[in-house]
# Entry
Amino acid sequence: QVQLVESGGGLVQPGGSLRLSCAASGSLFSAYSMAWYRQPPGKQRELVATITSGGNTNYVDSVKGRFTISRDNTKKIGYLQMNSLKPDDTAVYYCNLRRTLTIPGGSWGQGTQVTVSS
# Structure
């Protein structure tokens, strides 16, 4: 069972930046795809960005050009660099690691709160 621990959330002003990290245990990290999701207050969880084991990335339209997903397979850590943050980005952010993006499930972190406010 892979365990994931997110960090890096916090309070930031509009236009600011944060970098979220997702540290994984176990030996499967490099072979699996990773995704970042977020759940805004009172709303359903939504997919934000994905990265395959081969490094192919994809983003929801609302974060394209502002967020960058990446991974360091040696350290077994995934990242979500968030720039030009907006109040609408306020949410709890979760990382997810699974064998393939076409099949739901996998392992989830506990979430990290991101609040964008002046």
Residues 23 and 77 are 4 Å apart (CA to CA).
